[in-house]
Amino acid sequence: MNLNIKRRSTKSLTTGSLIETYPHDLQLYKIPPIDNISLQEFESLALERLNLLRCLATATTLKNLRPYSNEWREYIITELRNKGLKYYAKLCDKSACGNTEMDLQARRKDHIAHFILRLAYCRTEELRRWFIARELELFRMRFMTMNTESVDTFFKLNNLCYLNIPDEEKNNIIHYLRESTAYQNVDNMKFYKVKFYEVLDLVKLRKVYLHGGYAYIPHKDFVSVLSAQFRVHLKQSLAVACHHLGEIEQDERLVSLLKSLHQTYTGNDYTNTKAIIPIESLDSLSVKSFPLCMRQLHEQLRMAHHLKHLGRLQYGLFLKGIGVTLEDSLRFWREEFTKIMELDKFEKQYAYNIRYNYGKEGNKKNYSPYSCLKIINSPVGAQDCSGCPYRHCDVSNLKNKLQGYGFDPQTVHDIVDITKKGHFQVACSKYFDAVHNIDLGLGINHPNQYFEESQKYLKGEIKIEPKKENNSIPKESITDIHEMDLDEIVEG
Amino acid sequence: MVKQQYDANLLPDMLPIYYTRHFPQKIFCRWLAYGCSPQPLSNREMSFTLADDVYLRYLSISNQKELQELLQKKCPYKLDIGAVYNTKPSVGRHNAVVLARELVFDIDLTDYDEIRTCCQEAKVCEKCWLFMVIACEIIDKTLREDFGFQCILWVFSGRRGIHCWVSDYEARILDSPGRGAIASYLCLIAGGENQSKKVHLGNENLHTSIRRSLNIIDNYFEQLLQEQDFFATSEGLNAFLKLIPDETLRSQVAKKLEKLPQSSLERWTSFVSTYEAYCRENGNAMRKLKYLTEEIKIQYCYPRLDVNVTTGFNHLLKSPFSIHPKTGKVSIVFKSSNVKNFKLDEVPTINTLLDDMSTDSSVHQNNMKEAVKTFQEVVFLCEKTEAMRKRNNANTSIEF
Q1: What phi, psi does A387 have (nearest 5°)?
Q2: Are A425 and A64 a contacting pair, CB within 8 Å?
Q3: What residues in A contact B147, CB-CB < 8 Å?
Q4: By C-alpha distance, which of B270, B322, B325, B259 is closest to B293?
Q5: What b-and-e string marks burial along A463-491, b requiring 16 or more CB atoms within 10 Å of the CB?
Q6: CA pair distance A420, A350, nearest whole angstrom
Q7: Interchain proximity B194–A201, CB inside 8 Å
Q8: Among B301, B328, B362, which residue terminates a domain?
Q9: Looking at the predicted structure, is the pLDDT value of residue A472 above 50?
Q10: Is residue B196 within 8 Å of B115, Cβ to Cβ?
Q11: Residue B108 among the catalytic residues
Q12: Cβ distance A65 to A75 under 8 Å?
C-alpha cells in the first residue's frame, strides 16, 4: 500500500494560536479539545451539532434525496442557513483554507461539538451506529465539495503521502480502468493502488477495478479510503468514550444534558409493548391497520402456509411489536405451518426461531422489530415475499394488488406514481390515508408506528387535523421533534 | 447384485466406522488450526446435529484425539463449523468475541426453483447441476483474480448445492461489512417474488468482472437453453417476456415467438435478432435496453448466493466430509477446475464406502480418495501461505 499516515504528536492544543490549531475546515478529530468553556456554550454547541446531524438524516430518509447528490447538498445547506447554523454551512464550503476570525471560530466550534456528541452517542450500539453514519456523511460531503487546492492542503496538513502507479503499469490495465471506474477521461487521471478492504464502499457498488486484492483508484476516490479510516477511528474512539462514561457522569451538570440529548433522537424502537393483541384478530387487523408490507406477508402466510426466513423475521418481530404474546405467536405459526408439514418438523425447525425473536433462545437478546429503513435497505432473495412492497415490487404487481384491495383508480394511480419516483415511505403514507379514508399525510418510518397510528385513529384518539402535522404525531416522527427544537432555538 | 438403498436408520451403526476409517481427521484438524493463528484450535466452535435433530452448539476440540473421542461418543449425524473465538467457545458462549472465520459462500439449487424446469425443491439431476458448474466457475475466478485469494476450498453440500470456503488470512479476519461488500460485488440478481426483472446493468460500461462472468456464461448458455428449455411452455415464455421492459419490443417479440416451434434455442435466437433490429431503428431504445440480452442471460444463469451466510461473521456451515443425513452422501471436496466433470451419482455415500461388495464401491472409494487428496492440497497451501505471511510480518517488524 502506498498510503502512509503519520500521526501528529499529541501535544496540547491551547499552546498554539487558533490558526495553528485549526488551519483547515476539514478535521479528522484526532485530538480532543482541552479548552475551558461555559456550560451554556457546552449545551448550545451540542444542540447545534445535533441539529446539523439530524438535518443530514432528514435529507436522506424523509426527503428521499440521494446522498451526496447536488439536491441533497443544497437542501442541507439551505436548512443550515434557515436554522441559524450559518457557521456549519460555511464549513461545507469549496475553499476550506480561509483564515478569518470567523473561519477559525467555526472550526473551533466544530471541533468541540464533535467531541461533546461523542459522549452523548457512545452509550449504545444503536446510538453509535447512527452517530457514525451521520458524521461520515458530513465528512464525505465536505471532502467532496472542496476544490483541488483545499484537498491538496488537507493531505499535506495531515501528512498523507502516497505514490501513484507508474505510467507503464497504468497503460497495461487502462482498458480495465476505463471499463470499471465510474469516471470519464480516465486516461488523464493518476491512479493509486490500495487494498480492496480500504475502499469497501466502492467494491460494494462495483465502481472500482480490482485485481489481485488491490483496488485501483483515482485521486477523487481517496475520499473512500479516508472515510473508511475515519469510520474505524471513530468506532474505536466511541468505544473508548463509552468506557470512560463513568468518570464523566460524576459531573452532574453534564449528565442530564448528555442523557437527554440522545433521548431526543431515539423515538420508539417497539421492543417492549404493553398492549396485547389476540391472534384471532389478525385477519381483520391486517386489512384495517397493517401497512402493506405486513399485510402482504400475512396473506402469503395464510395462502401458502409458509414464509421464508426473512419473511418470518420481518413479520414475526412486527407481531411481537404490536403485542402478540410468545405463546400466541407460537400457536399462530404452528397452526399455519402444520397445514403443510408434520408438527414434529415445525417444533424442531421453526419454533426455535420464534422463541429466539422473543429473546428466549440463543444470546437471549430481545430483538426490536424492523424499521422502514431496515426493510427498504435489506436485500430480498429471489423468492422472498418480504421487504417493502413499494421498493421491492414491480409496478404492475403493486398496481394489481392495490386494485385487488378495491381502492379506486385515482388512489391506485397516486400511490403507484409516488412509488415510481422512489418515495417509498410517502407511498406508504398515501396507503394509510386510502385505507382510513382520510388525508393525514403521516411521516411513516416504522411499520409498528403505522400500526399504532392506525389504532389510535380507529379508536378516535387522533382528531383529524390535516396539514398540522406537529400535533398529530407526538413522539415517533423525527422531523417533528427537531422542527420543534428548531423553533425553540430560534426564539431563544 | 442389487444396489443397496441408503437407509437413515442404519446411520448409528455406520457412522462410528465412517468417522474412524474414512473421515480425514488429521488433515481436518490441521485445516481448522491454521498454525494456531490467530487462536488455537480449541477456540474454534463446532456443532453437532445428533439423531432426532438434537442440536449441540459450542463444542470444541484441542487435537485429533479429542475429535475422535467426541465423534465416537456423540456419533453426530451432521457436523457444522463455526467461528474462532477469543476463548474456548464452551466457556465464552454468548459473550465470546469472534476473531476469525473463513469467508464462506453457499449456493443452493432451491434458489433456482423459479428458473429450473427439470427439478424442484430438494430434487437435483445432472441437468440442473450445470447451474452449480457456472456458479462455481464464476465465483472462483472472481475470488482469485479480483480479490487475490488463493486458499479456496470447494465442497459439495451433500444434496443440492455447493459451499465455498476462503481461508486466506485477509479473508478470515475480514469484518462483517467487508464480507457484505464482497457479497454485493458478486451479487447481480436482486429482487423478490414480486419482481420479474431482477437484473439491472444500467447503460454505462460493463464492469470487468461482469464481462468475465458473461464470458463464462456464454460457454454454457446454449447447452443450458437446450436442456432446461426455459421458454418452451407458455408459463416459461410469459416469464421471459416480462423481462423485456419496452412494450413495443415485447409485443414484437411475443408475436414472432408464437409462430416459432417450441425450442428455446430457436426462440432465443429469434429474440436476439428482433432485439438487435429494434435497437438499430430506435436510438432511444438502444440506450435504455443497452444490456438487455446480458441481463436476461444473467437472470437465467448467474449464481444465486445466500448473502446472509456470507455476511454473517459467525454463521455455522456444514463441514467438509460430513454425511448428509437425508441422502447418505459425503460432502466431498472438489477442484473448481474439475467441476465440469462432477457427477452426482459418483459422489461416495456412507453405504458404498462401508460396503465393499456394492457395485459402485470401487468408483466411490476412488472418488473419496481423490476428495481427500484435494482437501490435503488446499490445507497444505493454507499452511504455506500462513507461514509466508508470518515470515513477512517478522521481516517488516525487524525493519522498524
Answers
A1: 95, -170
A2: yes
A3: 196, 210, 213
A4: B270
A5: eeeeeebeebbeebbbbbbbeebbeebee
A6: 36
A7: no
A8: B301
A9: no
A10: no
A11: yes
A12: yes
Whether B261 and B380 map to the same domain: the answer is no
Quick check: B197 and A394 CB within 8 A? yes
B1 belongs to a structural domain: no
- Sorted by sequence, the CB contacts under 8 Å of residue B209 that are 6+ apart come out as A180, A206, A210, B142, B146, B185
**In A292-379, beta strands by DSSP E:** none
The reply to whether B201 and B320 lie within a common domain is no
Residue B1, pLDDT above cutoff 80: no
Give the CATH number for residue B75. Answer: 3.90.920.10
Which one from B7, B52, B80, B106 is the annotated catalytic residue? B106
Q: Give yes or no for residue A160 having a pLDDT over 90.
A: no
What would the pLDDT profile of A262-273 be if each residue is shown by its tens digit? Answer: 555 444 556 666
Q: Are residues B215 and B270 in the same domain?
A: yes
Flag whether B245 is in a domain.
Answer: yes
Q: Which of A132, A183, A186, A197 to mutate to test the interface with B (most CBs of B within 10 A)?
A: A197
Residues of chain A neighbouring B206 (CB-CB closer than 8 A):
179
CB-based contacts of A263, cutoff 8 Å, min separation 6: none
Return the top range by mean pLDDT from A56-65, A452-461, A477-486, B361-370. B361-370
Q: What is the count of structural domains for chain B? A: 2
Provide φ and ψ at B376, rounded to 5°.
-55, -45
Task: Write down the pLDDT at residue B4.
Answer: 57
Q: What is the Cβ-side half-sphere exposure of residue A144, based on CA atoms within 13 angstroms?
A: 17
Contacts (Cβ under 8 Å, ≥6 apart) of A341: none
Using one digit for the tens of pLDDT, what is the confidence trace for B127-158? 999 999 999 999 999 999 999 999 999 999 99
What are the start-end ranges of the E strands in chain B? 44-49, 55-59, 78-85, 98-100, 103-108, 152-156, 161-166, 317-318, 333-334
Residue A352 confidence (pLDDT): 85
Tracing cell 498510503 back to the chain, one arrives at A3
- B213: Cα separation from own chain's centroid: 16
User: A11 pLDDT exceeds 60?
Assistant: no
Give the per-residue pLDDT at A158.
85
Instruction: Note the pLDDT tens digit of each residue in A71-126.
Output: 899 999 998 888 888 899 888 888 888 888 888 999 999 999 999 999 888 888 77
Q: Each residue of A14-37: pLDDT tens digit?
A: 445 788 888 899 999 988 998 888
Sign, CA torsion A271/A275/A281/A287: negative
